[in-house]
Specification:
Elements lengths: L10 E5 L3 H11 L4 E5 L2 H10 L5 E5 L7 H8 L10 E5 L5 H9 L2 E6 L4 H45 L5 E6 L4 E4 L1 H6 L31 H8 L3 E9 L5 E12 L5 E10 L1 H29 L1
Parallel strand pairs: 1-2, 1-3, 3-4, 4-5
Antiparallel strand pairs: 6-7, 6-10, 8-9, 9-10
Amino acid sequence: MPSQGILRKANILAVDDIPANLVALDAVLAKDYNLIPVNSGKEAISLLEKRQDIDIILMDLQMPGMDGFEAAARIKQIHDCHDIPIIFITAIYKEEPFVKKGYEVGGVDYFTKPFDPDILRMKVAIYASFRQKAAVLKERERQIRESEEVLKAGRKLSSVLESLPVGVLIADMDGRICQTNEEVFRIYKSTTPMERDSYGEILGWWDSSGNTIKYADGPLARALRQGKASHSETLQIQCFDGTSKMILTSASPLLGIDGRIVGAVVVIQDVTESKKIEGELEHRITRLVSLGVELEQSVKH
């Protein structure tokens, strides 16, 4: 389902064994909805077992093999289909016992033919709106639940790694840094909690080019977008006091209970001193080699 409150065009499953009836429904609803026609209850059940984006079902009652009552009852037993609104449309079963049975098997409305097209459009609009708004709320609940999972995993990781000489940063599924350990403050030379933007993201998490560590080919970006772990990548960062440091960084995706990526953990280690030592050693070796060459040349002359 769409996220961020954006409502897509509703999908309506129309179930009727008479093609002319499906054409009539299409003429009434196709302008505002995606109408998906099937010719039997069996076809409707098969489709609903494969798709999870049906918003409303328009169900004929008199069909050979499996009537609309039985089809509706079986649909309500399918996982994630029990709350799809079912509107019955019939030209025959108009008496009160049949109407009552329609509601008993899970229908939300009952139209008899000939029906008023305007009233059908209004009813469909109401049910579609409720269905999609409920889906948006469900998606938001899922995102909140996944964010809580990330924070829980972050707290567990931080408690394990707090005593180690590495910085640990936990990012949510949008790449916002939502938790760090104390070593991150030390590496960045920050004595106060890091400043955050309006989204709660930590500011100042920079690489040598002035971009955030979420840049397109960075370790955090790869973990979140591709699910790829990276290890021991060297980056130059700018600290809060304006100085630069070399760090080793590794990033791994965090997976939710359904196997989807819900965030990432980034581990950083300050290697500035070791890089300085390596640089000094290389410089001394180069200087010794140079002195050796100069000595050899002086002896020859």
